[in-house]
Amino acid sequence: MAETHFTVVGCGAIGGTVGAYLARAGVGVRIVDTAGEHVDVMRRRGLTLDAPGGSFTVPVVALHPDELAAPLGTVLLAVKAHDTMGAMTRIAPLLGPDEAVVSLQNGLCERTIRDVVGAARTIGAFVNFSADFIEPGVVRYFGPGDFYVGELDGAVSGRVRSLAEVLHTWGDVRTTDNVWGYLWSKLAYANMVVATALADEDQADLVDGYRRLMVALAVEVCEVAEREGVRLMAFHGFEPDLYRRGGWPEIDASLDELIRYMRDHQKPRSGVWRDLAVRHRKTEVDEHQGQAVRLGEPHGLRLPLTRRLVRMIHEIEEGVRPMSRRNLEELTES
Question: pTM of the prediction?
Answer without folding.
Answer: 0.95
